[in-house]
Design a protein that fits this description.
The chain contains eight helices and 23 strands. It is elongated, with a radius of gyration of 22 Å.
Length: 415
């Protein structure tokens, strides 16, 4: 199908949210739109799988963006967006050119930065080999204590739990039993974002792996010394592995909150601009997670398709929280069933959604296997498997996550 419509949608970004938006928009709007995907890199990778690479338990698959975009009749331009000119409906690209749009979807992600100096920060860039020396030092008995630290402000700590659990099983499998492993986090309970049952399941996983949990703890790291607040518990001589903190993209011409993130409504519309939308980590939704990013992208695609005349009743973004925890002994599936901000959640060794992918997107999860040579399309779901887990009331999700992150939900919007 070759699109022949004049309505031009520019989707900025080359990650999960951008690709989900491309697929969803083509499916829903059909030939009513012309799509241009503006991405800084020629390849797409599932970053959530990076935690497995240092332990030789998997690799990050990479896909050519052109191969993904072609079935959806989307043009690909390799560039980054430097600024947005809302009144004139154009974006300035880093190659100096201007690109006009009728609708613009910003899926440009957030900017990671290390929270501490002189520690191993996993996820600040594409490197996964930064843990190799740590694992080697543990196996060679040069390092005896490791602290996995969730910095304040990190809203998606699951990757650090994976690193801690897989490190534990790596050293125990090597017959080393004199290593101290600690997990330090501002959370009250392990992965408490998922509710009581998943948190209890993760608590048991940590205990079985011999990892000491320090909750409601804010770590100060200086010169190899870790001090926990409140209280003054200290660790001496520990190697530190931390997640990066995220900052908003702060694109010129785009409104931001006090933390640099783009304020959006339930349909992904950017507050203060016309015909501009945003999805994923760049937005002010507090929890930065790939599955949620795809759901934001789907909400935008439905709204845009309806605006273009497609027979679609656009639904607002209602987050469905899924987490596939890689443990070093298989996977644990976690989901949160909230009802007005409460709920017990669920945890299982069996899949709780379909397909049981690391990052679940309505379109992305179905299409990526088709791009892998020799791979078959996902089979039909088994009885009891669900493609959608739980609908989270939007205000409750925003408010509770913001309180957990100690952010000001009423911070002013600025340009």
């Amino acid at each position: 199908m070759t699109p022949n419509a004049s309505h031009h949608v520019v989707i900025a970004g080359g990650g999960i949210a951008a690709l989900e938006a491309t697929m969803a928009l083509r499916d829903l709007a059909e030939d009513r739109v012309r799509i241009t995907l503006v991405a800084p890199e020629r390849e797409f990778e599932i970053k959530a799988l990076r935690t497995a690479e240092p332990f030789a338990r998997g690799h990050v698959p990479r896909y050519a963006l052109s191969d993904i975009a072609e079935p959806f009749d989307a043009e690909v331009r390799i560039a980054s967006v430097d600024a947005v000119d809302g009144p004139n409906h154009t974006v300035r690209l880093d190659d100096g050119s201007d690109l006009a749009y009728d609708a613009l979807v910003l899926a440009v992600g957030a900017r990671p930065r290390p929270a501490y100096e002189q520690v191993l920060t996993f996820g600040a860039d594409s490197r996964t080999d930064i843990l190799n020396s740590l694992i080697a030092d543990l196996e060679d008995h040069y390092t005896r204590k490791v602290a996995f630290v969730v910095p304040p402000g990190v809203s998606w700590p699951l990757p650090l739990y994976e690193l801690a659990l897989m490190t534990a099983h790596q050293v125990w499998d090597a017959g080393i039993d004199d290593v101290e492993l600690h997990l330090v986090t501002p959370e009250l309970r392990p992965l408490g974002l998922f509710g009581t049952e998943p948190s209890q399941a993760v608590t048991e996983l940590l205990a079985e792996a011999g990892i000491a949990f320090h909750g409601h703890a804010y770590a100060e790291v200086e010169h190899g010394r870790i001090t926990l607040r409140p209280g003054h518990e200290r660790f001496e001589g520990a190697r530190v592995v931390a997640l990066p903190v995220l900052e908003g993209p702060e694109l010129p011409g785009v409104p931001t909150d006090a933390h640099g993130f783009i304020p959006v409504d339930a349909h992904g519309r950017v507050r203060g601009l016309t015909d501009v939308y945003a999805a994923g980590d760049a937005t002010d939704f507090p929890v930065k997670q790939g599955g949620l990013a795809t759901q934001q992208a789907d909400a935008i695609a439905e709204y845009l398709a309806a605006q273009c005349g497609a027979p679609v009743d656009p639904r607002p973004f209602r987050p469905v929280l899924r987490g596939k925890l890689l443990t070093g002994r298989g996977s644990r599936f976690l989901r949160h069933a909230l009802a007005g901000g409460g709920g017990e959640g669920r945890a299982s060794d069996l899949s709780l959604w379909f397909p049981p992918t690391k990052v679940s997107g309505h379109y992305l999860s179905q299409w990526l296997p088709r791009l892998t040579p020799g791979a078959a399309a996902p089979p039909a779901p088994a009885p009891g498997e669900a493609a959608i887990d739980v609908e989270v009331p939007l205000p409750s999700a925003y408010d509770s996550a913001r309180r957990a992150m100690t952010l000001d939900p009423y911070s002013p919007v600025r340009h």
